[in-house]
Amino acid sequence: MKPGRKKQNPYLIAGMAMTGSAAGLGLLGAFWTPFGTTAMSAAERFQAPSLRHLFGTDNFGRDLFSRVMQGMGTTICISLLVVLFSAFFGILLGALTGYFGGVFDEAVMRVIDAVNGFPSILLALVMISLLGNGRQNLILSLGIVFTPSYVRIVRSEYVKLRDADYIMRARLMGVGKLRILFVHILPNVLPVLGVSLVIGLNNAILAESGMSYLGIGVQPPDASLGNMLSDAQGFLQSAPWYALIPGLAIVWIVLGFSLFGEGLRRLGE
Amino acid sequence: MIRVENLSVAFDGPEVVKNVTLEFHDGEILGVVGESGSGKSVTALTLMGLVADNARVTSGRILFDGQVLLEAGKPRDRGLYRRYQGEKMSMVFQEPMTSLNPTQRVGLQVDEVLRLHTSLSPRERKEKVLESFRAAGLSEEERIYASYPHQLSGGMRQRVMIAMAVILHPRLIVADEPTTALDVTVQNQIIRLLKSINEKENNAMLFITHDLNLAKRICGRIAVMKDGCVVEQGTAEQIFLHPRQEYTRRLIQAVPGRVKKNRSLEERREPGESLGEPVAEVRNLSVYYRESGNSLFDRKKHRCVVQNADFEIRQGESLGLVGESGCGKTSLAKAILGMNRDVEGKILHHTLRPQMIFQDPYSSLNPAGTVGWLLMEPLRAQSAREGARPMTKEDMKEAAYQMLRRVGLEDSYFHRKPSQLSGGQRQRVSIAQALITKPGLIVADEPLSALDVTIQAQIMELMQGLQQELGLSYLFISHDINVVYRMCDRIMVMRQGKIIEIGDTEEVFREPREEYTRQLLAES
Amino acid sequence: MRYLGKKLITLIMTLFLVSAAVFLAFQIIPGDVVTSILGTEATPEMEAKLREELGLTEPPVKQYFHWIGGILRGDLGVSYRYSRNMNEMMPVAELIGDKLPVTLWLAAFSFVLILLISLPLGVIWAKSANPALDAVLGVLTQASMAIPSFFLGILVTYLFGIVLHFFVPGGYVSYEKDFPAFLGYLFFPALSVAIPKIAMTARFLRNSMLTQMGADYVRTAYGKGCTRRRVMYGHVLRNALMPVVTFLGMIVAEIVAGSIVIEQVFGLPGIGRLLVSSVNNRDFPVVEILILYITFVVILVYFLVDILYRVIDPRISEK
Questions:
Q1: Domain A10-25+61-267 CATH (choose: 1.25.40.10, 1.10.3720.10, 3.30.360.10, 3.40.50.1820)
Q2: Do B100 and C220 touch (CB under 8 A)?
Q3: pLDDT tens track of chain A, all 269 residues?
Q4: For B438, which DSSP code?
Q5: How many contacts, defined by CB atoms under 8 Å, are there between A and B?
Q6: Reported ipTM
């Protein structure tokens, strides 16, 4: 690239700032919060945002800023684990099916086609109803639900690249199959995968908060942005900040990641 | 009179067309010849008013029968241009498939020209479209009228494009590489068609090509472009017989005419030495292609793409393989390389496993690796194999550097990525990668056709030099008869999966036994 | 026609497979249904009786065919949780019956909103050479895609319900009582489902049109002397809409999912809320039927999209 043409990438910078602040607060929230996440105070119920309580308090007088900190941490952490899980199995299955094809590929793809057409939150609901509530089960079921989309992306790249001239060439040289799969092809898949990982992270955040909102994700008294919203909904008239603040926190994270993803995509171009 | 005067065009950066002046005469075909990036297409698109919106005309103007169509400093007048486009000037593009709307019947697409520029009734319009189809050499006009582009062959699509271009008898037709995407035999029909249209209609034609030979056959006058400038302009005769510019001379020499040829195997052979030993023997080989059905219910089809091939490749020779696309050349090559298991018959190799050089230097090098990694990878694979002599990393590095120098690249290229190389440099790396394990046989599948002519000449030289130095054998696949003539000792002609003729290059060129071969040779 | 037949067979086979998979999945989950219904204090006799009643004593394969056969005859089984009276379990069919139309109307309403708004918006966006409009639409769509649907629902409730008093939060009229009023109550929930999808679809159409505008055939059209308008509507739009059809098919599946959440937000008595509560209560017969039902809808939509695609794209229908 010519030095003069190097454009600024405001997407990347804004995305990094937004996700960075959210992740930082979340991480901090795991160790320290101003008031504690479960400390109730009957005297301080439904306080509007103030200097003492930046985000106000809820119906039990708990400090919302503390709870949002914990909630962001929980949401980001769960989503990261979900994406790691699904990306790992996505790459493994996608590489094997895409490169070798055959009956195994056919079978896997049939299943994935069926699953992929299905709304993800619905599938997660089914998985949860099989596995039962709880944090591990939430990660496991969302992980399983998101795996097919990665299999599909990785597979289609492998299908494309397995007949590329340079891969044919590697085969002619007698390079081993595993080395072709993960040394010759994988680096060329990563740019495509990188962007979809960020998108996947977003989807995971939306799914996690959605599940928690429906009461089948993170269980009270642990704070998660989703279950805070569902608690707050009943007090929309009297304490609108109670619902708006955790909701905006979700938007903040998701917007941050999508800006970050867009920035990555432009960087790759 | 139609004139491009002193035209300069720039996009965001520097000018890509510089002070170009072209004049068009009725009944004359003006050829603009140049390598990719020479500015010939931008000139044509600017003339037609079709250049991208971010293009700026920095100097000059375009005159069409006294009307100024475009002038530097003034915005393009689209309304004015629309009255000329399609009616007084029209264009034929390189890719007939993508140049037609894929979801509209081609008849209607031609009809649109009439709808825009005439007030004929629907019936009259249809009659006129069918007539223009006939004029463009399309029989079964009715069927073609109702067809979608994907239902027609490449040649038919280009004829439709031509019909669209000539239907209103424009004063000027611009043809931008109109035959490049087509097969050799079809190419010739299209060339003849364009020539006859030019004679009949007595209009002016601008013919853009990278192929000097083609320009020589069709054009009355030729302008040679380089880096945005017209370096030389004159009648075809002047250009070919008395080129004034060094660049034109280089271009003409680079074109593999039937004049230059490397020394044949017989001449190179020491007296008394017998004909080379075969490095590979192909005995009664048939290759099959399995078409996988597109659903559970379709039965898989088994098609024979190469029938009973029987020949050998000798030590130190270049064996040329020619034929049109789809004749089975590549399938045969893959079978010889052991990449296609669906074969009958025998392939015997007497040397190390053969390697391949591909057509497209952009897709044959792994974009994720550096040049050094690419060159060491074959050695690593070789020494990892059982029974092979293991090589240390230092040895591999040394061998890679040596190979790099041998193909004419400096040491500094070792750490570069393929994306940082030009097409010619990539092809050099590609050759180096194929040769580093010292195979006896190299299969080269159209190794030149993606390159510019001057680069082509360099790569050809390199390949010939390496052959003599290392005693290599080449199986050289090409659709370009002239390249094969220059490179190969023997030549093999394939048609519809069969080898119909094989013999010494000189003999085949002098006295082809088969009618098809004669046709193939006559056409280039 | 032959193609249609093949597709139909595949559709039926898929449904069959999904039903088997669902049945199997709920067979292997841990925990005894009978204990969970009756509690731990039930006598062995009571347990045996219930087991008999639910048909749980038979081998699984027979149970499956019994279940499938029942579904085909309209007998969807009984809920483990809800009962009609002291002695009778609530049939699933009855449980679902009046909730289904609510969800279907909600989904259909949002789909119409998506079509009506996103397609013109996408075209205008693609055509606009105005950088300001481009930026505004870019930010708006990006933002509305980042808002989770339940939060969007809450925002809509707050803004239109509490601040502007356009509707009463939590209010609802049954479609049997007053259909126009019912649709009126569905408007804001449908809008909440639709907004992110509108953004996605408009964006997709715009990108598709921009891609097509760079295609060679567009240059050919200009070369004939077409105006920009003619190129847009005569050539580009049709080609650009083709991938959008597939995209809209996927959107339908998303709408169904969105409806489930939005029902919760607006307190609509649809199958979404039933599904969520049944999952929480581990009321498997209800969950099984609902999953089958949604699968059926989703597969049917894909089937229709496939056929529609064949109608509008000549390149596929020929093969």
A1: 1.10.3720.10
A2: yes
A3: 334 445 678 888 888 899 898 888 888 888 877 777 777 777 777 777 777 777 777 777 788 888 888 889 989 999 999 999 999 999 999 999 999 988 888 888 888 877 777 777 788 888 887 787 778 889 999 999 899 989 989 999 999 898 889 999 999 988 989 999 999 999 999 888 888 888 889 889 988 888 888 888 787 777 888 888 888 888 888 888 888 888 999 999 998 988 888 888 888 76
A4: -
A5: 51
A6: 0.81
